[in-house]
Structure formats: structure tokens, C-alpha cells
Amino acid sequence: MIESELRETILQLVARPDYQPIKIRQLAEHLGLSKGERASLRKLVKRLADRGEVAYVGGRLMRAGADTQPAARASANQLVGIFRRMAAGHGFVRPKLPGWQESGGEDIYIPAQYAGDASSGDEVVLELSRARGPKGKLRGRILRVLQRQTYQFVGTYFEQAGQGYVQVDGTVFNRPIPVGDPGAKNVRPDDKVVFEMVRFPSPWHEGEGVITEVLGPRGQPGVDTLSIIREFDLPDQFPPEVLEEARREADAFQEIIPPWRRDLTELTIVTIDPEDARDFDDAISLEKLPNGNWLLGVHIADVAYFVRPQSALDREARHRSTSVYLPDRVLPMLPEVISNSLASLQPGKLRYTKSVFLEYTPEGDRVGVEFCHSAIRSTKRLTYEQVDAFLADPAAWRRKLGVKVHDLLGGMHQLAMTLRRRRLERGALELSLPEIKILLDDQGRVSGARLIEHTESHQIIEEFMLAANEAVAQRLRDAGVPFLRRIHKPPTTKKLRDLAEFVQELGLKTNGLEDRFELQKVLQQTTGRPEQHAVHYAVLRSLQRAVYSPEPEGHFALASSCYCHFTSPIRRYPDLTVHRLLGALIDGRTPKSDLRDLLILGQHCSDREERAELAERELTKWKLLAYLENRIGMEMDAVITGVESFGLFVQGLELPAEGLIHVDSLVDDYYYYDRSAHSLCGRLRGNQFRLGDVVRVAVARVDLDRRELDFRLVGPAGKKNLPSDRFRPRR
């Protein structure tokens, strides 16, 4: 049965009034599929669930809109949660009870013998034990797996005693997985492969898998990227029907302005983006009004015009939810004919937009707001580097830019700095942490690195995007329309108390950090001082993750009570949904919005965003480890990003390699872990290593397959004792 027929059969089946949820095995039997076709069926069901066409919960296929949230507490002594397995075999479960983390609830320890065949990311039912785990932690045992996070894994193939095995990348599985007879799919030893787990390993069984794809020899250019794409199940190809629909949109588009769009083509409008940007979804105009006020125009690509609800383009965009920015390629949310052409605000080309006009007094008070469908023609494409050069010497750029663009940039800088000052006055937080971008050669190998500075040119665009996002969110809220907000909950009370203890250990006085202005003051006081790394990293670790949700929560870090994402619909699906709701209001229609659907969509988009970030981080780590594999002994300055009883996690300051300094390698003293001070302390000499300290380290061990890097401590930061091949970043 071909996939399109199978999809229709499944959708018809679950739509029947008498349909009862069934497992994939039962579905395969019902459809008369062979065992070999079950893996393809499972992948198809997962894709349909991601797109919202069906629900797949607890290993059972349900109709979309069914109650897809399993009970967080199965019984009085049982909980549902997400399992995380450690390399040694034991693991931890984070319960899905509402408010568990906020109230200081801890992860539940699962001994290896009670973890069964659960794998990291699986949703499980556990039973609490009366006995306690290490350090008094709650302890339990897994009763059953409700839903697997994935059945697909990537690893290195090898043969032993006439049997084929795969050593899975990373530390999820310590032992290799048997994958049947050698030579399947013409695989050779040391090839990177994708395999489907038929039976998960447990303390009583070594597991079983079947190879589904051979990626290529380990170390061959491009194999690392392809491995990460498969490991995280990232979509790297668009289905034919999606590409065909995008081509039809391109063929139908004409550079004419419909009467219902406001013609803004005579305005001076610019885009400001990174030098290597491929799509341009936001543009800025700014006018000085006769009353002395500013009229800021934020013009965002009207992606909703090309991507209509329930279309093939929309289903694929929802499935992907976000563009994925890997070190050596981009996996776009939308086909390039839209993301890099039709909807990209390229200079000199007529493009459709949704515009937000914000009127501000010279003091930065917003006194008016207007939204409209529009058409623009960008005057000039600028880079952050060009704008920084302009700000350093405006007079030198008058002839290069022309009077209109020159004056526009000057006004943009003036207004943006006013808005920034007011935002900080209302309590917005600003962390100063180094951000390093690795540079790659033509083969995708690390060739250098550079510091990404958050300069005033970045701040200009950031302030205007924040202003537009907030204005749109407030408009939807005032209309009583449920929408996907960008929410960022405050840190838990426990986290803030721990943070207050830590900063006091550093000698900083505070009246308690429950007040955001006290927290902001600590950040501002330490910026540019030796304590900056320690304090800013500690604050970052105390913050919760920002997510998408229709719940009326604010954004803690931005000090905004009502906020959403609107300004990047080319690369974020939540922005596209907001565009559609705003478009209905502009047209005078009542937007269609369902709170329950938004809850499910918000969780999906948040998960997809996290997956994209993890994939980018893992591929970056892989490329850095490949670079360091032949550079044992290379030294660098590094900042301590985590402190545990077993050692120090550090990240290089010139090269963003992350690794561990094992406590056993600290031979100058006997060290103990001080939890309140986030530090390892020497018992004899009083040495102390704290979160945020900068130290000098050397590469001690690299394990590329397990993606592990060990450092050894050399001494204080800046001590020069470098090998001849010392890494030198480009500036």
C-alpha cells in the first residue's frame, strides 16, 4: 500500500463514530501489513500526529481532538513522567504533575534494575518506593512505557563473531545493539547507520534493531550533519505536494498591489540582518511627524498570504514548526521559493507585508498604534556590521547611504535607545554572556571561531521587534482572541533563594532576589567586573525556559505582561498563526481560535524549538570534538558552566568546546561539593572553583562516538603554555 493510500485509510478509520484507540501492532494487523511494513506505518502515524491530523498517545492511535493528556497520577502511589537514562544504567523521572517543579519537586531516582527497557525521553508510569535513593532522593521503579520518544537511532556499525552490531552515538545505550546478519544494506564496518529499534535493551535483554539507512563512512564530510539530522528526526526534504504547491504560489504571484493593501512603496524602508542572512522577514521605516512624535513602521513578510490554513504548505510548516539552523546548513520551515524569494523582503522588489505603525513621543511613550495589510519595496539591505560602522562615524556614511537612509538610521538609533532605556527601567533583564560562532571550511570542518557581539545595531532591531510583538499581543488580548503567546515564567522561589545565597557568597549585598529590580541590579553591578561570568551564568541557570502557550502568562525576562511572536513568520509557525488572527481583525472579521487546539499546538511548537536547539548544539559539539581529536594537550581559557560533586563542566572562551574536568584529576587537594555556593572546595588548601570562574585547561581525552570531552586543569586563566598548533580564532 503506497503512503498516500495508507494515510487516507488511517484518517477514514479514526473518523468512524465507533472507532476505539488501538496500538500500531493492532493497526498493522487490521490493515494486513507485513512485519517489515510496521516501521513505515509507525513513522507515518507519528508524522500525522505531528501535523495534528491524528493523536498518538500512550502507544495508541486516537482521533485528533481526543483527550491526549494521560493522567499525571495513575494511582495514589503511581506517577506519569519523562524518563532520563544515565550512562551507568540508572535514571531519573520528572513527573508531569502541574506545579511539580515550581513547588521544588525533585526528579525521582530509578535504579538500573528497575528501569526496565525505558529509554531517555520516554513517557513512563512509575511506582514510588518507600526507600530513598542517593542523597535522600525520592526513589521508584518503572512499571511500563506509555510512549516512546523515538524508535530511530544513529550509531557506528561493527561486526563481531559473525554478528552485526551498532554502537549508538552518545551515552544513551552503553552496550552495542545487535542488528542481524552482517552486510545488510551493503553496510561496512565503521559506517554510520540509522537503525530502527525492534526491541529495546533492558537489564535482561541486549535489545534488537534493524538497519534502515547507511549514511557513509565515519569521518567522511557531511556524514556528521546527516547523522544529527537522522538522530533528531529532522525533516530535510519537502514532500512533492508541498514543493508543487509552493511553485504554484510562485507562478501565481504578480508584482501588483491589490486595492485592499496599503501602498507603502514610496517610504524609505531598510532591512538590517546578519551578513550571511538568506531570508529577510522584517523591515523598518521611521518618520518624524509634524507634532514632533516618531512614527515607527515595522513591516513583516506576509507569509500567511502564501500559506493558507489546511494546505499542504501549512501542514508541513506546522509539522516542522521552526527552521533549524545547523552549523553548515539550514533546514527551512518553508520551501526556498517562498522563504528566500516570494516572502523575502529583498531590496527593490515589491513584497507583501503586514505592517505595524507605532507612534511614540520623543520620551518613548506609545500614543498610537495601527495595523494594516501593506506592500513595500525595501530601499536598502544593510548588515549589522555596516550599521555599527555608521554609528561609529555617521558623517563618513552620508554619501555611501544617501540622505534618506542616512537620516533614517540616525532616527532609528535615537528612538531605539530611548525604548531600550524605558524597557530596562520597567525591570527587563539583560545577561552578558559570551556567544561564539564556529567557522567551517568547505568540507564542513572547524577552521576558526569568532565572538558574536551584541552591539547597538543588534539592539536597534531587537527593540523594534519587541515593540511590534508586544503591540500585536495586546491587540489580540483586547479583542478577546485566544492566541499563542510567548511566555516565560518567573524562577521558582527555591531557585531564587539558592541564587541569593550564591551571590552573597561572592560578597554581593542583596535584599533578596524575589524582586526583579534586585535581580536586575545584581546583573548590572557585575557587568564588566570579575564576578560577571559567575553571576550571569548563575542567573541563567535559575531561569525557566520560554515556551509557547495560550495561557495569559507574561514574559519574565522582558518584564512584559502580554507578549507573542509575530516578527518571523518565515521561520516560526507560531508567528504565522498570529499573522492569521491579526489579519482577520484588520479585515473586520472575528478570528477563529480554539483554546484547546492552541494548548496542543503550543506544546508541539515548544518541543520542536527545543529539538532544533538540541540538534544544533549536538552537531556543533561533534564538529568541535572532531577538531580536538588530534589536538590532545591543546590549552585554552574556559569558564566553569556547571559544578557537580564529580567535577567541573567548562566551556572554552575562544573555542566553545564543552567538557568535564573530573574531580579525580584535581590532585592538589581533596575536594568536596558545596551546593549552596555552586563550588568545589579544597579541604586542605582552601582552593575553590565556582560557577562562572575562568580557568586555564588542556584537552585530556576526546571520545567522538560518545561525544565526550575531558579537560585537565592547567592553572589560572591567561597562563600561557601553548602547543604549536594553538587554536587562533578569526576576529
Strand content: 25-35%
Number of helices: 17
Task: Write down the overall mean pLDDT.
Answer: 89
Distance between the termini: 56 Å
Low-confidence stretches: 66-70, 719-731
Total beta-strand segments: 34
State the strand order across the main sheet. Answer: 6-5-4-7-8
Describe the protein:
By secondary structure, this protein is of the alpha+beta class. The protein has 17 helices and 34 strands. The strands form ten sheets. The chain has a five-stranded antiparallel β-sheet with strand order 6-5-4-7-8, with no helix packed on it. A five-stranded antiparallel β-sheet has the order 11-10-9-12-13, with helices on one face. Strands 14-21-20-17-16 form a five-stranded mixed β-sheet. A hairpin with a 4-residue loop joins strand 30 (671-674) and strand 31. The longest helix has 34 residues, at 595-628. The model is unreliable at 66-70 and 719-731 (pLDDT under 50).
Describe the SSE topology.
Elements (H helix, E strand, L loop, with lengths): L2 H13 L6 E2 H8 L6 H13 L3 E4 L2 E4 L14 E8 L5 E5 L12 E3 L12 E10 L5 E10 L4 E9 L2 E6 L8 E2 L12 E9 L8 E10 L5 H9 L8 H13 L9 E2 L6 E4 L8 E7 L5 E8 L1 H4 L5 H9 L3 E3 L2 E3 L4 H7 L7 E11 L5 E12 L2 E4 H9 L5 H4 L1 H23 L10 E5 L5 E6 L4 H23 L6 E3 L5 H13 L10 H11 L5 H11 L4 E3 L23 H14 L8 H34 L6 E10 L2 E6 L5 E5 L8 E4 L4 E4 L5 E3 L3 E10 L4 E9 L15
Parallel strand pairs: 14-21, 15-22
Antiparallel strand pairs: 1-3, 2-3, 4-5, 4-7, 5-6, 7-8, 9-10, 9-12, 10-11, 12-13, 16-17, 17-20, 18-19, 20-21, 23-24, 25-26, 27-28, 27-33, 28-29, 30-31, 31-32, 33-34
